[in-house]
Amino acid sequence: MNIYQDYIQEIEERKNQGLHPKPIDGAELLSEIIAQIKDVDNANREDSLKFFIYNTLPGTTSAAGEKAKFLKEIILGHSVVKEITPTFAFELLSHMKGGPSIEVLLDLALGFDAAIAQQAADVLKTQVFLYDADTDRLKEAFKAGNAFAKEIIESYAQAEFFTKLPEIAEEIKVVTYIAGEGDISTDLLSPGNQAHSRSDRELHGKCMITPQAQEEIQALQAKHPDASVMLIAEKGTMGVGSSRMSGVNNVALWTGKQASEYVPFVNIAPIVGGTNGISPIFLTTVDVTGGIGIDLKNWVKKVDTDGKPVLNENNEPILEQAYSVATGTVLTINTQTKKLYNGDQELIDISRSFTPQKKEFIRAGGSYAIVFGKKLQTFAAKVLDIEAPAVFAPSKEISNEGQGLTAVEKIFNKNAVGIAPGKVLHAGSDVRVEVNIVGSQDTTGLMTAQELESMAATVISPIVDGAYQSGCHTASVWDKKAQANIPKLMKFMNNFGLITARDPKGVYHSMTDVIHKVLNDITIDEWAIIIGGDSHTRMSKGVAFGADSGTVALALATGEASMPIPESVKVTFKGDMKGYMDFRDVVHATQAQMLKQFNGENVFQGRIIEVHIGTLTADQAFTFTDWTAEMKAKASICISEDDTLIESLEIAKGRIQIMIDKGMDNDRQVLQGLINKADKRITEIKSGEKPALTPDANAKYYAEVVVDLDLIAEPMIADPDVNNKDVSKRYTHDTIRPLSFYGGEKKVDLGFIGSCMVHKGDMKILAQMLKNVEAQTGKVEFNAPLVVAPPTYNIVDELKAEGDWEVLQRYSGFEFDDNAPKGAARTEYENMLYLERPGCNLCMGNQEKAAKGDTVMATSTRLFQGRVVEDAEGKKGESLLSSTPVVVLSTILGRTPTIEEYTAAVDGINLTKFAPSNKQLVM
């Protein structure tokens, strides 16, 4: 059976799932399709034409290369296909977005046939995804006097690829659809347990919300054909959590419009809204697709005569509905007045959704086109030796005389591209910055690869210091889905120039370390900017931003990112941490005290948390920065003391060296380069030439939070509050409760220690607690299963060297075996200790899960509905989040411990301690 027949068989199988043919990305299949098109008597010719025209992926896929080559043959008359005229062939090339299509267009534009050259030049004027090899060809032809090269470059200088696009509509009609009450996690839009299908856009689209919701959306579209469906988070924030790109892709698939009639299932222009706005990373992804995100503010705090919030019996602000967005409500967005209307009634100002930059993204069909377009215009103006005309909206630049800089403002100014020398920018400014470190993870990496192909990128930008492709999200189970996807991903990323967790050549041992932990180690400069394809890209060195797979692709391809400089919230500490408390409790207490201090307003949301935590090394401080994703912060940054930072950099150097020793470095010696940079940074700190980063004494913050350690008297637990009468209060991460709330009576069905929120110290705490329990009771008996997934192999190796792993082995009933990894997800658990493979495990929820309806006590970060545990008939699954000692004791007891049981169990154990510095941390 040939490859075409295999494809036809796959099509028949997909029909049973209600799916269309899968888009073609491989050269071998498309070559066979082209051969059948050329054979006028071939029985498959008609179908082959449809597949070639409408079902081939563009960009730099190998299929795109074959398609571009065949279209060139048709244009030159070397092949004649009556259904594809030369004019139509040019149209098809115009929809292929760079790569082979640009090479073909340049061949034709710089060729000898003037008529063909003119047509090619006209198409090239509309293209923006050109790279150095392409622009170099144009520049050389221009210098040689080629008239068409001159014409193209002059068009680029005027940015006609943008100015000739249609203006955005003045009025956009929408019909509302309430996707849920409260914060809407992207897990609702793109469930983690369906991560394997994300690169198959149509198949993955079937998992958005529910089949019933999909039918309801289609019914609204049928009833209101002139309106776009706007997905809404009622009384909450839209798009919290991870997997933004696949979430936005799904929303666009069901509610947006097709980007090109010749590219299937790639939709753009989704419209989303939330009572409390849109999660920052999700909103960036909406921009990538040329969509609109609206902060609806349709529920407001009730205030008294003095203007103060009226509180309910739980001391929470009472909300009143300002206007209705109930499902089926028809509203109008006016892009000129920047207002939202219901008929003639003005509802709210939505100017933040229609800044000049956002309007450009909408007009161009996405932010990528603007990023590449600006670079193309700059290139053309330089070749012509003219000043680039002011076509694009000028970047917003805010410079406040006499005002100092926060730490993050300093980083942005250091890494900024294209600002006037000596100019200092403050929060609110739009900045293009160079990116130092980039991370891609495995369940979104396939989409990142697709994005790189679609923007015609073939090699990592030389200005990126280091980039890593992880294997952590698929570490738990090496099933058929993982076997089909992950090697292909690793090969692509390794060829692109990333350090990869798996070696495509099989030389070094596969490493499934959690992506954030690796990025935390390979970040060797606290002045760095990090972009990572995971919401928990929050480093304890530098400033890191979790990003959608497309923004990751853009950072890999260009070494740049564009964003406003965010406002910062300063967090400092006072008092003393009690000896029986763990630092995880300080993390949760920070959130609880902040909410109380600001009457329920989350001042962290959408801002940078500047945390003055200088006495903790990078491993320990990471526990705080990692959690800031759940605080809804845009990012976080640690202010570290010189000695502590040096210690952290030495630890990072050691771990990078281990990666080198394993054979993970590449031809560019990226990892060795990071060690060299770390050495240089350490020398700068020790000599006093450039001390550790600190903010200016006169920096301005949106708010300042002081965490009182004296008030933290018992372990703190983040509770999903699954039975709260107010649906909007469930699964928010904002319900932080003391251990005593549960009275030592809440049943715990399973415990989980692992993922990114734990470090080596947590594993040592676990080992010591087990020894303590045995010493106190004569044995260790689990009344609930305890699943342990160390974050990295380095930690396992260090525990083995220090004797702690042997302790864990002694009490375990299962230990991972890399030589025989699990081929299927665990569905049942016994009351024992499971030592699982390093990686995300239960926190990701795409492979392993707790049993339906379980109450889980976890060190994880995720408590979203259905993520760690799904609901059972008549019982909601719930994932409570706490410190390692609380999890251990809960599984031994099978319930939450009392404070007395807890303090006895941790007696003498070296928990993760924190003491605020006595030093002045500002300049």
UniProtKB/TrEMBL annotation:
Ranges for domain Aconitase B HEAT-like: 6-162
Broad class of enzyme this protein falls into: lyase
UniProt keyword Flavoprotein present: no
Any one Gene Ontology molecular-function term assigned to this protein's record: 2-methylisocitrate dehydratase activity
Gene Ontology biological process: propionate catabolic process, 2-methylcitrate cycle; tricarboxylic acid cycle
Gene Ontology cellular component terms for the protein in this record: cytosol
Domain Aconitase/3-isopropylmalate dehydratase large subunit alpha/beta/alpha residues, every copy: 410-894
Known EC number: 4.2.1.3, 4.2.1.99
Superkingdom classification of source: Bacteria
Pfam families in the record: Aconitase (PF00330), Aconitase_2_N (PF06434), Aconitase_B_N (PF11791)
Signal peptide limits: none
Keywords on record: Iron, Iron-sulfur, Lyase, Metal-binding
Chain ranges of the Aconitase B swivel domain: 178-405
Keyword Iron-sulfur: yes
PANTHER family tied to this protein: ACONITATE HYDRATASE B
Stated name of the protein: Bifunctional aconitate hydratase 2/2-methylisocitrate dehydratase
Species for this entry: Flavobacterium potami
Organism placement in taxonomy: Bacteria, Pseudomonadati, Bacteroidota, Flavobacteriia, Flavobacteriales
